[in-house]
Amino acid sequence: METTAIVRRQTAERKRDTLERLVTERDVWVSTAHPDHGPHQVPLWFLWDGQAVWMCTSATSATARNVRKEPRVRLALPDTVDVVLLQGEAECFPDQEVPEGAAEAFAAKFGWDPRVEGDAFLYVRVMPRTVRAWRGEPELRGRVIMRDGKWLE
């Protein structure tokens, strides 16, 4: 069996790799919590617009209920070897009030426009305040690549 050693990336390289994944990945795990009902986690499609993560969910979903009560969320890309975790606060936009550019970009990426569905949907925008990225134990030190909404160098 052949193993490959993990080469520790510097912050700039981790940032570059993370931004590339945010553009190319499709799914993100969304962790929310409700003050009365506790934690909830679900995978959603997402769009990275260069500054924020945009997701869309049923307006009546547990995720929608949770972010309306407690906007602090954590997001995780699905790879457990190349970890990317984002933390921020959710801002909610009913499907008929979402900024046109975000809705059009979301529809273009996924070939689906929630605004034309019969049921109500909620767009959720998360501006990351903290981003952590690491590949294995050698990269645990220095895994924070964004703090207080600012990318580290």
How would you describe this protein?
The longest helix has 14 residues, at 11-24. The protein contains 3 helices and 8 strands, in the order αβββαββαβββ. It has helices at 11-24, 62-69, 100-110, and strands spanning 27-34, 38-48, 53-58, 72-76, 82-94, 121-135, 144-147, 150-151. The protein is globular, with a radius of gyration of 16 Å.
Structure at a glance:
The chain is an alpha+beta fold. The protein has helices at residues 11-24, 62-69, 100-110; strands at 27-34, 38-48, 53-58, 72-76, 82-94, 121-135, 144-147, 150-151.
> What is the terminal separation in angstroms?
37 Å
Number of strands: 8
Strand order of the largest sheet: 1-2-3-6-5-4
Indicate the structural class: alpha+beta
- Low-confidence segments, given as residue ranges, are none
Helix run count: 3
Instruction: Look at the structure and give the mean pLDDT.
Output: 95
Query: How helix-rich are the residues, as a percent range?
Result: 10-25%
Using only C-alpha atoms, the radius of gyration works out to 16 Å
User: In this structure, how is the largest beta sheet organized?
Assistant: 6 strands, antiparallel, barrel
Outline type: globular
Please state roughly what percent of the residues sit in beta strands, choosing from under 5%, 5-15%, 15-25%, 25-35%, 35-45% or over 45%: 35-45%
SSE string, helices as H and strands as E: HEEEHEEHEEE
